[in-house]
């Protein structure tokens, strides 16, 4: 298989959510260009509209009139977060500081995901959180109000938890410190700092002082490294050719997959590296034709490639030797249980893999074809990871729900077909 050309992946999902939320909390008008127009980001736009923010239909150029940190209005309907954990958890932080209650609902996948991890710190700040049914699961109502300072040590390295607390602090005008075991993605910190908030980051702790205001800002959203990862993998698995992936966000808290792929033997380089809007951005160039070998991913590397671990498992099936992922039990509470789902799907297409409580082992047998039916559990990242395996010569992989890629990467299947020469 030969790859060729250039794939411009859509805007970063994490940054797109935050660009809308921070524009809504801002003083004045913010313009966001290259925002990701996907189902998840539409969920964030929808919940903001429900709370009185005039967010236009998503497009190449979105202008939002900010309402200030406590200027949202009580929603007259539920906040429908769809499939999006980021929408739910970050918005829960903001609602905790508003003088009203809001009920969060979501799809079947989101309704299974744990919410106590954000509810507990928000309750410690003075908010009240109630559940319709199972404790810690949607539907969940956040009863906002005046909050107090918080110094919180998070058990998980989760940017969503960290951001929920930080945004609650900013919206309430109180001081917060969040500590986490390993550093998770830091877009909230960078984006707040770019909007004039005096964010202090030291090692694995983030601090925001009381009385923060969020300035309006015009920003461009860089390409999503988690989306670029599928094409980096495709290029690395190709027997010849080169793929160029321009304008990808290269924030060091997000680039773990590219490093792991290089360690496995892939040839990856970065061209045109620059800073844009507080983020490192560049063109990732991947060349095919290299033999890949297994690797181990654990510890602080895990959060830097958390969403790419299903894809790593697929690449590992084409490498020589064992690939081990440990310390990634968070995968069990993503859009699906990604440990069970990826191992089951790998076996279904003819690869060898086994589950660990907090990760998996893949027994790679070098370049080869795969065939079988993949159950995605409507998980976009599983669909795309197995899409890459299905694109390999001689492979015949059927993904049960190809449309679920719209959560983060509408147009993925077309882009995948277009990258193969
Ligand atoms: C995200 C953080 C990660 C990631 C998710 C997006 C974010 O989740 O898996 O896709 O935008 O903050 P956790 O913070 O729960 O690890």
UniProtKB/TrEMBL annotation:
Catalyzes the transfer of the enolpyruvyl moiety of phosphoenolpyruvate (PEP) to the 5-hydroxyl of shikimate-3-phosphate (S3P) to produce enolpyruvyl shikimate-3-phosphate and inorganic phosphate. Phosphoenolpyruvate binds at residues 13, 85, 113, 160, 338, 381. Belongs to the EPSP synthase family. Its main location: cytoplasm. Pfam families: EPSP_synthase (PF00275). InterPro entries: Enolpyruvate_Tfrase_dom, Enolpyruvate_Tfrase_sf, EPSP_synthase, EPSP_synthase_CS, RNA3'P_cycl/enolpyr_Trfase_a/b. It comes from the Bacteria. Residues 2-416 form the Enolpyruvate transferase domain. One of its GO terms (molecular function) is 3-phosphoshikimate 1-carboxyvinyltransferase activity. One of its GO terms (cellular component) is cytoplasm. The lineage of its organism: Bacteria, Pseudomonadati, Gemmatimonadota, Gemmatimonadia, Gemmatimonadales. PANTHER family: AROM/DEHYDROQUINATE SYNTHASE (PTHR21090), PENTAFUNCTIONAL AROM POLYPEPTIDE (PTHR21090:SF5). It is an enzyme of class 2 (transferase). Pathway: Metabolic intermediate biosynthesis; chorismate biosynthesis; chorismate from D-erythrose 4-phosphate and phosphoenolpyruvate: step 6/7. Its EC number is 2.5.1.19. It is found in: Cytoplasm. It catalyses: 3-phosphoshikimate + phosphoenolpyruvate = 5-O-(1-carboxyvinyl)-3-phosphoshikimate + phosphate. Transmembrane segments: none annotated. Keywords: Amino-acid biosynthesis, Aromatic amino acid biosynthesis, Cytoplasm, Transferase. This is 3-phosphoshikimate 1-carboxyvinyltransferase. Monomer.
């Amino acid at each position: 298989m030969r790859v060729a050309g250039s794939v411009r992946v859509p805007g970063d999902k994490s940054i797109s959510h935050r660009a809308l939320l921070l524009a809504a909390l801002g003083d004045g008008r913010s313009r966001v260009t290259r925002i990701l127009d996907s189902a998840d980001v539409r969920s964030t736009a929808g919940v903001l509209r429900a709370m009185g923010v005039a967010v236009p239909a998503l497009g190449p150029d979105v202008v939002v009139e900010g309402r200030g940190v406590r200027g949202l209005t009580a929603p007259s309907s539920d906040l429908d977060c769809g499939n999006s954990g980021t929408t739910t958890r970050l918005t829960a932080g903001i609602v905790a500081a508003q003088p009203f209650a809001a009920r969060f609902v979501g799809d079947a996948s989101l309704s299974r995901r744990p919410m106590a991890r954000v509810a507990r710190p928000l309750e410690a700040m003075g908010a009240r959180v109630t559940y319709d049914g199972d404790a810690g699961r949607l539907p969940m109502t956040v009863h906002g109000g005046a909050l107090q300072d918080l110094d919180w040590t998070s058990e998980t390295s989760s940017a969503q938890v960290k951001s929920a607390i930080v945004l609650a602090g900013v919206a309430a005008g109180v001081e917060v410190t969040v500590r986490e075991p390993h550093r998770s993605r830091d877009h909230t910190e960078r984006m707040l700092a770019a909007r004039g908030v005096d964010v202090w980051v030291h090692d694995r702790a983030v601090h925001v002082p009381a009385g923060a205001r969020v300035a309006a800002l015009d920003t461009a959203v860089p390409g999503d490294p988690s989306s670029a990862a599928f094409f980096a993998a495709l290029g690395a698995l190709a027997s010849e050719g080169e793929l160029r992936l321009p304008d990808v966000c290269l924030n060091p808290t997000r680039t773990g997959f590219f490093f792991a792929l290089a360690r496995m033997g892939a040839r990856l380089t970065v061209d045109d590296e620059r800073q844009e809007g507080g983020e490192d951005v560049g063109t990732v160039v991947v060349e095919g034709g290299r033999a890949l070998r297994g690797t181990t991913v654990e510890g602080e590397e895990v959060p830097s490639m958390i969403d790419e671990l299903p894809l790593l498992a697929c690449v590992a099936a084409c490498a020589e030797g064992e690939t081990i992922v440990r310390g990634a039990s968070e995968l069990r509470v993503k859009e699906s249980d990604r440990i069970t789902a990826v191992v089951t799907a790998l076996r279904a297409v003819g690869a060898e893999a086994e589950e660990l409580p907090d990760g998996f082992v893949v027994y790679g047998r070098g370049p080869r074809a795969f065939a079988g039916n993949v159950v995605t559990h409507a998980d976009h990242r599983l669909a795309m990871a197995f899409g890459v395996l299905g694109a390999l010569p001689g492979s015949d992989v059927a993904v049960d729900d190809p449309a679920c890629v719209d959560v983060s990467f509408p147009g993925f299947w077309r882009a995948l077909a277009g990258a193969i020469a």
